[in-house]
């Protein structure tokens, strides 16, 4: 079991190439990440990362281990899902709560696939922002939440689901940052549309800016709107920009309706998380989580 967890730590670090980001994703400390990597290298009798100051890269052994680790995890996921499906009747009501970005742009195809596989399970979906989903979960109004914010409730267990990136977006017709790149100082002068208070996306943006010494109050906030769709329609009709999930603008990018503005030395990455109450998860909730993780592959 220790080896399995070390492989999980290695895989997370290898995908992020950053010990701090891996620690955040796995909800452990950075020293713990370093300790597990050193123990793994001692066990394998070889280095899996080359370290140069704060930068790391995979060694040839690390590249091989990453490829094999992904194969191992895929086998684990398939085995867990198939055994779970075999041992359960797979019927009843599953109440899902999802924050707006996940509900609009990630869940529709997943829910369709889940229904096709388990037609006897009745699914209901509640769409609210992250704070409201966590409250609904603690009040047992839903069985499982899928959220996008950083806030954490001690009564709730969180498990990573899907990686996301939040990008600065403007209309393809906009004259803002025509060369496609700005600095953080220039960001403060651009009219910005933000998500509403309580939004997980807003919380993640605020945290990422704070790390760089910038607060939301430093931005040229033009308006706050609830939901990515409202924001996308707004920026199509006004000379402004907005931070949005990359999942929410794939269609607009493919039709050349919007464009992404890069910010020098700044990026916002996050993970969507499953949220369940501590203790043994509801059987259908656990089935759905296993299916979702297997399906995204």
TrEMBL record:
<dbReference type="InterPro" id="IPR000847">
    <property type="entry name" value="LysR_HTH_N"/>
</dbReference>
<dbReference type="InterPro" id="IPR036390">
    <property type="entry name" value="WH_DNA-bd_sf"/>
</dbReference>
<dbReference type="GO" id="GO:0000976">
    <property type="term" value="F:transcription cis-regulatory region binding"/>
</dbReference>
<dbReference type="GO" id="GO:0003700">
    <property type="term" value="F:DNA-binding transcription factor activity"/>
</dbReference>
<feature type="domain" description="HTH lysR-type">
    <location>
        <begin position="1"/>
        <end position="59"/>
    </location>
</feature>
<protein>
    <submittedName>
        <fullName>LysR family transcriptional regulator</fullName>
    </submittedName>
</protein>
<dbReference type="InterPro" id="IPR005119">
    <property type="entry name" value="LysR_subst-bd"/>
</dbReference>
<dbReference type="Pfam" id="PF00126">
    <property type="entry name" value="HTH_1"/>
</dbReference>
<keyword id="KW-0805">Transcription regulation</keyword>
<comment type="similarity">
    <text>Belongs to the LysR transcriptional regulatory family.</text>
</comment>
<dbReference type="Pfam" id="PF03466">
    <property type="entry name" value="LysR_substrate"/>
</dbReference>
<dbReference type="InterPro" id="IPR036388">
    <property type="entry name" value="WH-like_DNA-bd_sf"/>
</dbReference>
<keyword id="KW-0804">Transcription</keyword>
<keyword id="KW-0238">DNA-binding</keyword>
